[in-house]
Structures are given as structure tokens and as C-alpha cells.
Write a structure and sequence with these properties.
heterodimer; A: alpha/beta; Rossmann fold; 5 strands; globular; B: alpha/beta; two-stranded antiparallel ribbon; 13 strands
């Protein structure tokens, strides 16, 4: 069955004029692809290690190091935790090849991000045209939201790639309807899940498309399902081992599930309603909305178009309902948003007046790119020190530097107490030392099973069982109660300031000032008065 | 000229005939000594693996003269606070039972213990994890005896003076009204110009031999006379130079932080000494805090920290102390030797007593012995390895996981294998499919010649 890929945005007035063929000219196409690739690479790889890893990055990179058998990570970063391990496994291969490097996770994530740019092109091209594919790829390549997320050693970069590949596989299946293509859909969706559990949403999207469109062969659905199960089987095995570990006193996946379901909201319910448009940049988001409307109104809408709309709506709706929000959680819809926006630009081009010159078209592409950047108010490339409110947005300011200070200046075995567990992960990653977290609840239902609550901190401090207290602004802003408690401990047990890191902030009067972001205190020994 | 030649030859021969390590001064110039209270080796380390702890199947007769009365095996104590067991010199002699070491329960009962079998109780890593960690990381002495078959005072006196006997043969079992007349290691150090300080927890300068109330134990700080024999010696009270070197413990932390610890620092705890009925856990926290202050000091790299216990406290031990003279030895006590040069995880079974501390000071700082006891005592040479570079300090951890309770290794190989198998096969299939589609694409291209045809 022949399928034409330009079903929506076909020019209405005969052949395209010469200046509109700019992107169908092969050399120019390659040039445009090259520019997109170079921009994508530059934005994702430049100064990748300028800031230290954040808590989640530390955990995933540490798990990868454990998988690679690197001794010092084995105790602190068990791979048998909450998530499937596709990203970590991939990173572990890098560690095995070139040895451990703390920026390795970011390199792998950036590669996934770059491949997503290519996959976006492939999807756009398959559904519509090369031009839309290229514009979509360009949008993803420069989209600050996607750039920021794919510059971090997080699972979302891989998940977004496989989300996009799944969409590509389904479009391809709709074209050729073979068992092999059905298996490709199953494998790609399995890889999405293997990147992060929430990748299971691709199955919801596929189900929506199948149910709305109908006409899919049951045998192909079965093949897809088998391929999916085969692909996710490593996680099933790991979960089985995790369950055994749980019986032996460790933390199994059931405990992680209970904890996830019982987690209190970390942001208001309106989080994505008020933030999502800004993540993508308001103009780009508006273009995508218009693109979506265009798609729903076209008389020639098909399963691929439904797929594109479901790709955006299903994750958005899910995370709107889900209690726990995060900056990076909805990045998997970025390629779909980009393609929808590109669709509108393509429509505008194909419906423009003929007086535009080629230079105007080039200018338009530049303006499109600039628009994405300028409008993306929430997406500075550097993780902003001043903004620490949104989960997953940034790291702990000064976390790496503090961890390295701890590594170089505290004896092995020194015990440190901090506010929250995030800093602990970073210190474990860089310094192979622990920072216990005051805020970890002793109630197992309310606690990430990977963390241990501090039993009777007052007693332990009084008797010198902690040697240092680490106070960080990031954790303090997230839990004022425990931050104040830690400050009280510092005063009561004679904490002596031994390390301080500061950053420049802008005060309410507009004047810059130096504000502490992390402080480390050495506690007074027992015999010196605190406990005696 | 001939004489000079002979002298030079003698010096050369003497130098060459000395062992190599004797020619070089050990790289330790700071020694910190802490003496806690009232524990035997078996009470703390009786179940420590690889050392001379409770023998398999060991039991203690309730009555050594009536074996039918039954026996008690060592048992794990469930509280870190216990009553103080009788531990006078007489009680120790009865427990010793002429070397049979079977009179501990009998002695406890005879001298008024409410629960005589308590003497067979012991602690382990769950109660004193810091000490067990130190044993793992540094040196545990399992053949160290208290110096005197007696209670705290004479043992402390031995630590300072290697004797409990005055010049006229008087036996010091407490501080007399006129004060003690003994030569101490601090006299030797003072003569040799070696710096020293005695740090006393809760130091009270008025609690000395001239205070009758203190001597009679009527003041809160009276125990200072037992644990700090220097305050029972007139010259250390009257000579302002000597007296200025007896200071409050708080100075230790300041000196350590400023890297101004003296060459010999003797620490005498008071309330946190692990003496029952006090909570030994708190004393154990305290002792490790002292060590950690040294560990973070710049002096760590050339230091040694010696931790021991003064006497048995009424607790049982299975090793009969050798009787080297009329004073002792007394019961076996634990000893921990911590230093950047200490052998790692080494159980040192050299015969030591408290005067081994003095012998070590004499060896390190080249001062003369005080009595035959310290002259014949072994210094801690065997605990050190000076061929190794100084080790970075390792703080002991408050949780101790014995080897048998260590969780099994994670099945990482199996996990890696499953991932590699599944993803590897996917990569192979994808590669084959890609190659096949490339071939098909070329073939289609040749047949249609239309790159835009995606049929």
C-alpha cells in the first residue's frame, strides 16, 4: 500500500515555487541537517562538567559504576533500586571501555539527546515531510528544555529517545503492516519502559491509537506484546532478585512502589498547567497547540496524526494527575511539540504569498530558532543557582565542591549529618562518604527505601557520634522545618565553621551580594562540653 | 692518637652491630595515653575473632570447691549499664584462685554481688562497635595485664611510676596524708626536656593530697586522687612549672586543634570512664572522641594513641596473669594501639602490662626506666610497622557488621548477563534488519529511481 507522507500540509496551489524548494534540494538538505547536528552537539556537549552532578545523576551514575563492578560504588549505589537500568547499563559499558569518569553519565545522556534530534527528524519526515522533520529536529536541537534535561545524567533523555522511536516504529508499522514492524513497535516501547517505568505510557498511547483507528491484526498485536515482554525481561529478572533481597532485609520493588504511591505532593496541582507552556517557550507551545488544532480539523486525519496528539496529551494528563511533579518529567513530549509547531510553520510557508524571497525563508528559520530561545524563560542552559524550587530542575549548588572538600579534609569514617538525602547522594558519589539526612522519615511508607532515617539525632550528636554537620541552602529551601532543626543542633553542639561556599545573588534592591550556599561545621568533641 | 683510633673503631663497630631499626628514631613524637576503668579482655573482646577470647565451651564453676554446684557459660549482656561488681584486691585473689582462674563467681558472691553470675557477662560489637572497629583497623593487644593484683589506685600508680612502693618499703594502696614519694615518668620527661601534660576531665586543682576531704572521698572530685597520682605527689602541687602541666581536659581539644599537643599526653577521664554502673557506651563514645581529636590534628602523622583499662572491675577473664613480682600482674585487660604506623588489623599477643606504656615512652624519648618493672616491660614495638608510610586516619564507625552478618554480594554478574543478552540480541537483530533494508532500498532505488516513493 502506498502512503504519501505529506497528507496535511500539501500546497493548495499547484507546484511549489522555486524558493520553496529550498529544503528539497539535496545539498541544502544535507547542509540543514549538518547545521542542526552541529547545533545539537554544541548545546549538549559544551562545558558538560562545569557543574557537579545532582542527586539523581549521582544515583544513576553510581548505579552504572556498580554495574561496571567499580568497587567503591557497590555499597552505596545498588542497581537493585527503583528503576529499570537501560541508561545505567549503557553507561556501565562506557565505564568498562574508558574507565570511570564523573561526567560519563552526562555524555551518554547527551548522546541520547542528540539521537532524539535525529529521531524527531525521522518521525516528522515519515508522517509529513522532510521539511517538517527538519524544522522539528531543529526545534528539539535548540529547545532549552530538552537541552537542559539531556545535559544531565538522568533517565529522561533515554526515555525520550525511545518514546520517539516507538512513535516512529508505529508510523512505520502503519505503512507496511508486517510482523517485523509490529515487533519493532514492541521492542521500541519496551526500551522506553526500560529507560524509566513511566515509559509504560507509550503503551497507553499505542492503545489509544489502536482503539481509535481499529483494523490492527491481533497476531501483530501479540507479536508486539511478546517483543515488549522480551525487551523488558531484564527488569523482571532484576525485580525478582530485588524481591529476594527484600526478603533478606533489603529494599524490594514492592517497597519502592508503596513509597511512590504514598509520596506526598512536592508541588501544587497546577504545576504543569502554569509551567508547561514556559518549559517549551510560549511561542513554540502556542504554535504546537495550533498545530494540534490543525491536525484535529483536517479531513484526512489518520492514525499517525492521532498518535502525535496522544503523544502530547497522555503524558501531560498523567503527570497532571500524578501527585509528584518534576521539571524533567514531561520532556518526552518535546519531539511531538516540536513537530506540531513545525507543522504550523510549514503550513504558513506553503500558504505564504509568493513575494517572499529565499532570504526571507532563511530569515524565518533563524527567527524561529531565536524565538524558541528567547521565549524559553525557564530554560537557561546553566542550572541556575538562584532557582532551586522545582524538583529535577537543577543540582545542589556547590554540592560537588563540598563533596570534594569532604573527601580531602575529613578522615575516612567521619560521620556527617545534613538536612536532606540529596546532598548525601552527591557526597557518596564524589567522596565515598555518607551524609545522613535529618529529613528522612522513620515511617517506611513515607521513606524512599534507599534511605535510612537518623535514629535519635539529639542523642547521637550529644555523644559525638556525628563529627560534622552540613547545611545546604538547596535542602533548606525544600524543608524549612529540618533546616531549622539542623541550625539548632549547630548552635547547641558547638559547631565550628570549617567550610563555606557562596554564590552571588541579586538582592531585592537589585544589588549583587554574596550568599552562602553550603556550610560545613565541625562539632565540638564530647569531652569539650557538649556531652560531658 | 692510638686511643682516638681505638675509640673510633669501637664506635663504628658498636654502630654496625646495632639492629638497623634501633639506629633510627621511630617517627613518633606524640603519644596520647587514655586509661579507662574496670574491664577485662574477655568482657570486651571475648568473642572477637582471631584473638585469645573465650575458649570454646568455656564455663565458670559457681563454686570451685563444689563442682556439683554447677557452672555458668559466658553470656551476652543485654544492657550497657550494670551494677559494679566487687573488685578489691582480695576479691581478685579469690577469683584468681592460685592461677586456676575459676573463682570469679565464687568471689563475686563472697564479696557481696547481688548477681554473682554477672561476672561471666560480656559485650561485643553491638555494644562497643567503635572499639571493635579500632581492633579491625589498628592493633588489639590480647595479652595485656593490669600491673597489680588490685584495684584502680595501685594500677594507676603503676602507669605513672612503675611501682606502688615508697622508698621505705611503704605500700601505697591510697594517697597518704603526707603525699606519695615516688619518681614518675613525668619526672624523667621533665629532666630530659620532653614536653608532657596530664589532662584531667573535670579537673579540680583543690582536690589533692592536702585536702583531707578529698583523701577521704568526701568531695565530688575525690576520685581525682585515685586516677591522677600526680596530685598526690607534693612537688607536682608545689612546683608551679610541674603543676601547670596538670590541666583540664578541655585543653586537650584546644591543643590538638592547634597541633600543640605535648610529646606525652596522659588523659584521665572521670565521669565517662566506663566504670560500672555508668553506661559504658557513653565512655566508649568519649574515648573515641579523644582519638578523633588527635586524628584531625596535624600531629596525627607522627602520633600513637594508647587506650587501655586500669583493672578487671570484677569481670571474668580466662587467662591467668603471670606473677612477675609481689604486686602482680593483675587480670588481663584490653589494649588498643592506634597510630598511622600501627599494623592494620593486627592482634598483638606480646606480653604487656601497664608499664609497657612507660617502656614505650622511654624507648621513644630515650629516658631511663623507673623500676625493674618498666625496665623489663616490652614496649609496643611489635605493634608498629615503621616501613609503611603513615596511614590516613580512619574514624571508627558506630555500626559494626561482623563478617558472618555481611550481606551476600549482589548478583551483578547475572544482572549484567541478562541485560547484555537481551540488549545484545536486539542490537544484532536491529543491525541485520538495517542491513537488509539497505539492500532492499538500493534494489528499490534501482527499480523505481524515485527517492520520494515510500511504497
Amino acid at each position: 500500500m502506498a502512503v504519501t507522507r505529506t497528507q496535511v500540509a500539501q500546497p493548495q496551489t499547484g507546484d511549489s515555487p522555486p524558493e520553496l524548494r529550498i529544503l528539497t534540494n539535496k545539498r541544502l538538505q544535507y547542509l540543514a541537517m549538518g547545521i542542526v547536528a552541529v547545533v545539537g552537539v554544541a548545546l549538549r556537549f559544551a562545558a558538560l562538567d562545569e557543574l557537579g552532578v545532582n542527586s539523581d545523576e549521582a544515583v544513576y551514575s553510581g548505579q552504572a559504576a556498580s554495574l561496571a563492578g567499580i568497587e567503591r560504588f557497590l555499597d552505596d549505589f545498588s542497581p537493585f533500586r527503583a528503576h529499570p537500568l537501560l541508561f545505567q547499563f549503557t553507561l556501565s559499558l562506557l565505564y568498562r571501555l574508558v574507565g570511570f569518569t564523573d561526567v560519563g553519565g552526562r555524555i551518554v545522556a547527551a548522546c541520547f539527546g542528540l539521537l532524539t534530534v535525529a529521531a524527531t527528524f525521522a518521525v516528522g519526515q515519515r508522517i509529513f515531510s522532510k521539511r517538517i522533520g527538519l524544522l522539528g529536529a531543529l526545534a528539539v536541537a535548540v529547545m532549552p528544555y530538552h537541552v537542559v534535561v539531556s545535559r544531565q545524567a538522568l533517565l529522561e533523555a533515554a526515555m525520550t529517545l525511545f518514546f520517539t522511536l516507538t512513535m516512529y516504529a508505529l508510523v512505520r508499522y502503519r505503512e507496511i503492516r508486517t510482523a517485523g514492524a509490529a515487533a519493532f513497535v514492541g521492542i521500541a516501547s519496551g526500551l522506553t519502559f526500560m529507560s524509566k517505568e513511566v515509559g509504560i505510557l507509550v503503551l497507553v498511547i499505542l492503545a489509544v491509537v489502536v482503539l481509535v483507528e481499529g483494523g490492527y491484526r491481533v497476531s501483530h498485536l501479540a507479536i508486539g506484546l511478546v517483543a515488549f515482554i522480551f525487551t523488558v525481561s531484564p527488569h523482571l529478572v532484576a525485580s525478582g532478585i530485588g524481591a529476594v533481597e527484600s526478603e533478606a532485609g533489603g529494599a524490594g520493588w514492592v517497597q519502592y512502589l508503596i513509597w511512590q504511591l504514598g509520596r506526598p505532593p512536592n508541588h501544587p496541582g497546577s504545576f504543569y498547567l502554569s509551567n508547561a507552556l514556559h518549559y517549551f517557550g510560549l511561542p513554540l507551545a502556542l504554535l504546537a497547540i495550533i498545530g494540534g488544532v490543525l491536525l484535529t480539523r483536517t479531513a484526512r486525519r489518520n492514525g499517525s496524526h492521532n498518535l502525535l496528539i496522544a503523544w502530547v496529551l497522555v503524558p501531560l494528563l498523567f503527570f497532571q494527575v500524578w501527585k509528584v511533579k518534576g521539571y524533567h518529567y514531561i520532556v518526552e513530549i518535546a519531539p511531538a511539540v516540536a513537530i506540531l509547531a513545525a507543522l504550523v510553520l510549514d503550513w504558513l510557508w506553503t500558504h505564504r504569498r509568493l513575494m517572499f524571497r529565499r532570504s526571507s525563508v532563511v530569515l524565518g528559520v533563524v527567527a524561529f530558532t531565536a524565538m524558541i530561545w528567547i521565549s524559553a524563560v525557564n530554560g537557561p542552559l546553566e542550572q541556575n543557582y538562584a532557582r532551586v524550587g522545582d524538583a529535577g530542575y537543577s543540582g545542589i549548588p556547590g554540592g560537588k565542591e563540598a563533596a570534594l572538600w569532604i573527601r580531602d579534609n575529613t578522615p575516612e569514617g567521619a560521620r556527617l549529618l545534613g538536612i536532606g538525602p540529596s546532598l548525601g547522594n552527591i557526597v557518596r558519589f564524589y567522596a565515598d562518604a555518607d551524609v545522613d539526612a535529618l529529613s528522612v522519615s522513620p515511617n517506611p511508607v513515607r521513606t524512599n527505601p534507599a534511605y535510612e532515617a537518623v535514629s535519635n539525632p539529639d542523642y547521637q550528636l550529644r555523644w559525638g557520634l556525628y563529627d560534622y554537620i552540613v547545611y545546604d541552602v538547596y535542602s533548606a529551601q525544600r524543608t524549612a522545618h529540618f533546616a531549622n532543626r539542623l541550625l539548632d543542633f549547630i548552635g547547641r553542639y558547638g559547631g565550628e565553621l570549617v567550610y563555606e561556599d557562596t554564590s552571588i545573588r541579586i538582592g531585592e534592591d537589585g544589588e549583587p551580594f554574596s550568599a552562602p550556599i553550603i556550610r560545613i561545621y565541625r562539632l565540638k568533641p564530647v569531652g569539650q562540653g557538649a556531652g560531658a | 692518637m692510638r686511643r682516638l683510633g681505638a675509640l673510633l673503631t669501637f664506635v663504628a663497630i658498636t654502630a654496625l652491630s646495632m639492629p638497623a631499626d634501633a639506629q633510627e628514631q621511630p617517627p613518633i613524637d606524640t603519644i596520647v595515653i587514655v586509661m579507662q576503668e574496670d574491664r577485662t579482655y574477655d568482657n570486651y573482646f571475648g568473642t572477637y575473632p582471631g584473638a585469645n577470647g573465650w575458649p570454646e565451651g568455656f564455663t565458670m564453676a559457681v563454686d570451685p570447691f563444689d563442682l556439683a554446684a554447677g557452672a555458668v557459660a559466658p553470656f551476652k549482656l543485654d544492657s550497657t549499664r550494670t551494677p559494679s561488681l566487687p573488685h578489691s584486691a582480695k576479691a581478685m585473689v579469690r577469683a584468681f584462685n592460685k592461677g586456676a582462674m575459676d573463682g570469679f563467681i565464687d568471689s563475686a558472691e563472697a564479696y557481696g554481688a547481688t548477681d554473682p553470675a554477672l561476672t561471666m557477662g560480656y559485650y561485643d560489637y553491638r555494644d562497643i562497635p567503635f572499639y571493635w572497629h579500632l581492633a579491625d583497623e589498628y592493633v588489639l593487644a590480647d595479652n595485656w595485664f593490669s600491673s597489680v593484683m588490685g584495684p584502680s589506685f595501685p594500677n594507676h600508680l603503676y602507669l605513672f611510676a612503675a611501682t606502688m612502693t615508697g622508698p621505705n618499703g611503704e605500700r601505697y594502696t591510697s594517697v597518704p596524708a603526707e603525699g606519695l614519694d615516688v619518681v614518675t615518668i613525668f619526672d624523667r620527661l621533665e629532666e630530659a626536656g620532653v614536653s608532657w601534660k596530664v589532662y584531667v576531665q573535670g579537673y579540680d586543682p583543690t582536690a589533692n593530697f592536702r585536702s583531707t576531704e578529698a583523701r577521704l572521698g568526701l568531695t565530688d572530685t575525690a576520685a581525682q586522687l585515685i586516677w591522677v597520682p600526680l596530685v598526690g605527689i607534693p612537688r607536682f602541687i608545689d612546683d608551679p612549672v610541674l603543676n601547670s602541666k596538670i590541666v583540664d581536659l578541655s585543653e586537650f581539644f584546644v591543643d590538638a586543634a592547634n597541633s600543640e599537643l605535648p610529646s606525652v599526653a596522659m588523659i584521665t577521664p572521670s565521669g565517662l570512664s566506663e566504670h560500672p554502673p555508668g553506661d559504658l557506651k557513653l565512655g566508649h563514645f568519649f574515648a573515641v572522641d579523644l582519638l578523633e581529636a588527635l586524628m584531625v590534628s596535624d600531629q596525627w602523622d607522627r602520633s600513637a594513641f594508647i587506650l587501655t583499662w586500669d583493672e578487671w572491675g570484677g569481670w571474668a577473664d580466662h587467662v591467668a596473669p603471670p606473677q612477675v613480682d609481689e604486686d602482680g600482674y593483675g587480670m588481663r585487660v584490653p589494649g588498643l594501639i592506634v597510630s598511622p604506623y600501627a599494623k592494620r588489623g593486627y592482634v598483638d599477643s606480646t606480653l604487656y602490662d601497664h608499664t609497657s606504656v612507660l617502656a614505650t615512652i622511654e624507648w621513644l624519648f630515650d629516658v631511663d626506666p623507673l623500676t625493674p618493672r618498666d625496665a623489663n616491660a616490652a614496649p609496643f614495638e611489635n605493634a608498629f610497622d615503621f616501613t609503611q608510610p603513615p596511614r590516613a586516619p580512619v574514624f571508627p564507625a558506630p555500626e559494626y557488621l561482623p563478617e558472618e552478618e555481611t550481606p551476600p554480594e549482589l548478583p551483578l554478574e547475572e544482572l549484567n548477563g541478562v541485560y547484555a543478552l537481551v540488549f545484545g540480541s536486539l542490537v544484532v537483530v536491529a543491525g541485520a534488519e538495517w542491513g537488509r533494508s539497505r539492500l532492499r532500498g538500493k534494489s528499490n532505488k534501482r527499480s523505481t529511481g524515485d527517492p520520494e516513493d515510500y511504497s
